[in-house]
Prior knowledge:
Layout: H1 2-17, E1 38-40, E2 43-47, E3 56-60, E4 68-73, E5 80-89, E6 102-109, E7 114-121, E8 132-139, E9 145-153, E10 161-170, H2 178-189, E11 191-200, E12 209-218, E13 222-226, H3 228-231, H4 237-246, E14 249-252, H5 258-261, H6 271-282, E15 286-294, H7 309-326, E16 333-338, H8 347-352, H9 357-368, E17 373-378, H10 388-400, E18 407-410, H11 422-433, E19 439-444, H12 451-467, E20 471-476, E21 480-481, H13 487-490, E22 493-494, E23 501-502, H14 504-516, E24 520-523, E25 529-537, E26 539-547, E27 550-559, E28 564-570, E29 576-580, E30 591-594, E31 601-609, E32 616-623, E33 630-636, E34 644-651, E35 658-660, E36 665-666, E37 674-678, E38 684-691, E39 697-703, E40 708-713, E41 721-728, E42 732-738, E43 749-753, E44 759-766, E45 772-778, E46 785-790, E47 802-810
Parallel strand pairs: 11-28, 13-14, 13-20, 14-15, 15-16, 16-17, 17-18, 18-19, 19-20, 21-22
Antiparallel strand pairs: 1-4, 2-3, 3-10, 4-9, 5-8, 5-10, 6-7, 6-9, 11-25, 12-24, 12-26, 22-23, 26-27, 29-34, 30-33, 31-34, 32-33, 35-41, 36-41, 37-40, 38-41, 39-40, 42-47, 43-46, 44-47, 45-46
Signal peptide: 1-19
GO molecular function: endo-1,4-beta-xylanase activity
Family: Belongs to the glycosyl hydrolase 10 (cellulase F) family.
Amino acid sequence: MTIVRTLVVLVFMHAYIFAEELIQHGGFEEEGYTAFWDCTNCDMARVQDSHGGLYALKVENRADESAGPHQTVNVTRNAFYGAESYVKLLTDEEGSVHTRLELFTKITHTDGTKESRKIGNGPYMTTAEGWKKLGGVFRAPEKDIDDLKIYFKGPGPSVSFLLDSVSLKLIPEMSDNWKEEANETIQQIRMADINLEVFIGDEYELSDVEVRVDQVRSKFPIGAMVKADRILDENDNKYREFVSETFEWITIANALKWRLMQREEDLLDYEKPNQTVDWLVEKGKEIRGHNVFWGVPKNVPEWLKDKSAEEVKKHVDDRLKGVVQAFKGRLAHWDVNNEFIAGHGDWYEQKTGDRFLTEKMFQNISVIDSDVKLFFNEFNVINGGASTDALVDMAEQYKAKGLPLYGIGTQGHLKNTGYPDILRIKVNLDKLATTGLPVWITELDTPAVDINDRGDYYTDVLTYLYSHHAVEGIIIWLWHDDGNMRKNYTNLAGGLGNDFQLNDAGIRVQNLLRKTLRTNKVIKPTSQLSTMAVRAFMGDYTIKVLHNGETVLEKMVTVGKEGANVSLQAGSGLSCVNRWSAQSGVGNGETVTVPCDDGEIMTGCSSRTIDKSEYRDGERFGRDSSTKERFCKAINSAGSTAPVQAIARCCKLPVDLQCSYPPAQTSGTGDNEQISIPCPSGEVPTGCACLAYRMTFDGSFPDMNTSSCIAQNDGENGGSVGTGACCQASGLECVTKMSERSGDNQGDQVSVSCDAGYTITGCNVYNDFGGTAGAYTAPGDGNGLCIAFNGRNRTTPNQGVKAVVTCCRIAN
């Protein structure tokens, strides 16, 4: 999948790299450059201090900020272009800690109208930093163009600079099938397989069973901006309920901003943001902190502006320590210094004279809260592109210095100019992706007057953003109409209190987020053991097995890039049957054996006399030395008048069930003497067997405390031989149950069953007074019954036999 995505990007880049160059003499390598370049109100000359080749253009003696070199280029109406250049300061701007150059288009239309558009914000730079990239993208106007100039300008007139490697190329349009391609990419990068292995126990009717796969949380965050006042307004419950049910991530619009938390120097409001954050955390929301600082002058606290540089530093330090500590552990992200790059938001740097103040903000926040993820948050990126290259440059600087920058936030207030420019979004995201940092769309809104268009725009943009490999999360911004003029064109809902409701565009976005980009499926198993793969969006899931609509098994599963393997075993998780031997001959030492079928594993072994008498010598687990086949063996006894039968208990699930059979051991010859046959480490006894010639045995039972089979002797005619099955499987749990005593007459029977969810793996008979006629598993009581038979008439009351059952399940 990575290879396919990389090839798509390379093909796109190849088309751009080898597109026709529209700038003439962009490398200034030949004297003829003056025929194409002009410098209005400034001087220009070639110098041998270059970014590429031998020469660059020196620009000096600038009359004002607008003075700079420019070239007229031929462009096609409504086509999309990428501009690139490299600049180097020769003088720093007086009175500024850093400066930047800007790239513009100046357009004259055939009807005489003119317009100027900024297409590139240069990075903040000084003379010490050498060459820096200045570039951007633009779409040519739809109106007929008479003249279009690429123009460099920006710093004060005292600044001289070098210019080199200027390029302008057509960027090819996206495929008409971009939406289908985006959905294919989503399948590849946002989804993974849930491999289900479903076992339905015998206690459930298969036709009445269904498996529900329900996504409860997305790995890919999509959230929204909320107003603190509305979250705290108990009369606005419909709004609050919608937020709680729809969005997993939240940005609080204003309540965390310094200017609004501290409108006056001595008045600091933590109550509103604290209460809002507490409510959101209680609802399980992840919160983006917006923001610690905002250096655009109009968003700086008014009372701070007249302070001295040292006073500002002190207040910056107090603000940072106070707000970060106050919300430590409750916020997932912080926007550190909002619009620092794109919005000329460097007030704090310029006021304090500390060019690296924002870097220190990142470092100091990380010291206080090392878990919170720190972001840039910039505009004019995917909605324009003028600041993208500068943002990339700043991100690379932070990475090189080892600063705790986690990701890049780009706001995404798209323009109200018709259908969104998906190509513009793609090109700018591709640039951000080169940093290797996660990208968040932090403030997305897509305006349209027509409500149907708005639904189209939102769903298409969200689909494309969701498909881009660099995008890690999305926050929808102006989605609710509360009087903001822009919201008239971007809102997805409106109304206060009980009047809150989604509009048609909002319903479509809600369906996209809660249905299209989520996985919820109902599956009907077709057999007792079913395997199936579900292609699912990554995230957290509840997977349930239901029988007649009632949940009988539930698992929480997280699906990541590698998918998830899920075993669902409703019921015991074991499928076991009896295998009956033929009848033995009549007489002392007559034997009969029975194996399990192919694919089955023997977990229990018992025997019985056909006439329900005590005349049998018992049973044992055995193995055919030639075929290596396991069997259950029954032995008839002296004095018998009827055959015996062997009953093997044979299981075939789960798939990792394995059993071993320790060597037989013999007890002492005294009455009630026992022998313990221990299971290997990690295995449990699932069935035990006992034999003694001349019928002198009391029977056998598992001891789960010691993971052993116990065989008990009766009388003094020889010891009793014990054997057992010792098994292991993932989640295997076994218990032993023993019935009350049977009646005292020959043929009286007694039974015991397993609890719900368990399966019988072994059934036998035990009596400390001897005289047993055998035992076997029979249908009944949900999971079956272990039935034991008394083998003699007893003159002393209360000496009947007991049924012993081993009950096992696979614990989920």
